[in-house]
Design brief:
It contains 11 helices and 10 strands. It has one domain. A 5-stranded antiparallel β-sheet has the order 4-8-1-9-10, with helices on both faces. A 3-stranded antiparallel β-sheet has the order 2-3-5. The N terminus is likely disordered. It binds zinc ion (ZN). The site of zinc ion has 6 residues, from helix 4.
């Protein structure tokens, strides 16, 4: 028998505390392939997230070159925002993929019996190689279509080649509840000239100047961004795996590797029947209070505000309020992580087979059984 800490029950208890039994009960059970598994079940884990920049952040749209992405609010104040694509596809999904590959490298051979897979090549095309003229949907990028990354975050296929799977993770925008003029700074960099290996020196005569000065607008360290992810119809293992990838995400946006380091906090999760609340609403609520005009909004303030906001929905499901949740996820042992990955992988293979049954694409050998 598996030891207490290694069982999913034990791991769930470690992460969710006393409510773990209720949460396991609430999660989807997907023990064997069944058409019914393909039908949405209306279980939504509303995961409230605060992204804390640990270094100055460069956040902007793909095509923008100099500016910070900001959004207007109804209060007439413009605030910085991290788009969901930057965070979910660009960072969390990438984190999940690397977690799976790392696991497969260590355990794949041993577990191939249980999973019935002998190689794992699921990849995501890097953001930057995407061509400008033709936006290639991210989905056609080498996803395998049968791993937790594919069946949790979804994938699309070329026409005629099977069916698309919708993402069961839906994020919104991550909004800094801080006016743009309070948290965006302009930073000037001095680029080194490739040939002369010198920086720009304005005191030199023009003909001898090398290098260049350039400027970036960046988000100041510590500016909290609030948002929410809706995780749909997850088994307990899928839920834990997705939360783990979220907690382990340490970079967002920014093309330059020196910037963009973040810490993800998960102060609240509401397990409910539908999607409730969102980052924009929390942010405008904070801005509307007008308390943080003179006094800078700290991470602690943001945590308090999110907690207060989510508490309004307490009667709508099972509410877990725990500022240490992210750290607890990051603190799981390797053995515990391995247990979660293996079970999540088994769960998605059952889902895959259920989807095949649903669309009537049973393979020949399966039909023979
Ligand atoms: Zn895959």
């Amino acid at each position: 028998m598996a030891s207490k800490t290694m069982s999913l029950d034990g791991i769930s208890r470690k992460i969710f505390g006393e409510k773990y039994k209720e949460i396991i009960e609430w999660c989807i059970k997907r023990e064997k392939p069944d058409k019914y598994n393909a039908i949405p079940k209306g279980r939504v884990a509303n995961v409230y997230v605060i992204i804390e920049p640990l270094s100055r952040l460069i956040i902007r749209h793909e095509q923008e070159t100099t500016d910070v992405t900001t959004i207007p609010t109804y209060l007439g104040i413009s605030v910085p925002a991290i788009l969901n694509t930057k965070f979910q596809s660009g960072a969390v999904r990438r984190q999940m993929l690397s977690l799976l590959h790392e696991w497969f490298d260590r355990n794949g051979k041993v577990k191939s019996e249980e999973l019935k897979i002998d190689s794992y090549t699921c990849v995501m095309r890097p953001y930057m190689e995407r061509t400008r003229e033709r936006q290639i949907p991210e989905a056609f990028e080498g996803y395998c279509g049968e791993c937790p990354n594919c069946l949790i975050f979804g994938y699309a296929v070329q026409e005629g080649a099977g069916y698309n799977v919708k993402s069961r993770v839906e994020g919104d925008m991550y909004v800094a509840p801080v006016p743009e003029d309070k948290c965006v700074i302009s930073v000037t960099f001095n680029a080194i000239d490739d040939i002369a290996k010198t920086t720009y020196r304005p005191e030199l005569p023009e003909t001898r100047r090398r290098g260049a000065l350039y400027e970036f607008r960046m988000i100041e360290v510590g500016t909290p961004f609030v948002g929410k992810l809706a995780l749909r119809d997850m088994t307990i293992a899928e839920l834990l795996l997705t939360l783990l990838a979220l907690a382990r995400t340490t970079r967002v946006g920014g093309r330059t590797t020196h910037f963009g380091e973040v810490k993800v906090h998960i102060p609240a999760i509401l397990f409910s029947k539908y999607e409730i609340g969102g980052g924009y609403e929390v942010a405008t609520r904070i801005l509307g209070k007008g308390e943080y005009v003179e006094k800078a909004l700290t991470l602690e303030d943001a945590m308090n505000e999110v907690t207060e906001y989510v508490k309004k929905f307490e009667s709508q499901g099972i509410l877990v309020l725990d500022r240490g949740l992210g750290d607890k996820l990051r603190g799981l042992t390797q053995e515990e992580v391995d247990t979660v990955v293996l079970q999540a992988w088994k769960d998605v293979l059952v889902l895959k087979e259920s989807l095949d049954m649903f669309v009537g694409k049973l393979s020949k050998e399966k039909r023979k059984k």
